[in-house]
Amino acid sequence: MKHKKLSGKSAEDIIRELKQASNPTGGYREQSLRIHGLICAKCGREFGHKDRGLLTVHHKDGNNRNNPPDGSNWENLCIYCHEDEHSRGLLGKYLSGK
User: How many alpha carbons fall within 13 Å on the CB side of residue 77?
Assistant: First the structure.
């Protein structure tokens, strides 16, 4: 099926550009997986291509908009370690009575 081109771009090209423009940080997960590998930084579990969906990107400073291209604010954590990381603060507040 041929798509009409507007200004030399196919409909697919335009859609791809619009998606990238509306979600400028959407690629940080793939960047982090490439930089840090398919391994959980906390428990050391290694993941394969099929189960890589169990790896998440944790922002070390807690700011999910801070996405330096060198990956210095990211660490790959499995879903279990990521949940543990975020629940530690809640538990600490609860135990301290804050």
Answer: 16
Q: What's the rounded Cα separation, in Å, for the pair 6 and 10?
A: 7
Say which residue the tokens 């391994």 belong to.
39
Given a contact cutoff of 8 angstroms between Cβ atoms, the answer to whether 55 and 40 are in contact is yes
What is each CA distance from 73 to 44, 63, 76, 96, in whole angstroms? 18, 9, 10, 28
Q: Does the CA dihedral 11-12-16-19 come out positive or negative? A: positive
Judge whether 77 and 85 are in contact, CB under 8 Å: yes
Q: How far apart are CA 2 and CA 8, in angstroms?
A: 14
| pLDDT, tens digit (0-9, with 9 covering 90-100), for 22-55 | 455 458 999 999 999 999 999 999 999 999 999 9
Phi-psi region of 97 (alpha: psi -120 to 50; beta: other; left: phi over 0): left
Q: The whole model's pTM is what?
A: 0.66
Residue 74 dihedral angles phi and psi, to the nearest 5°: -115, 150
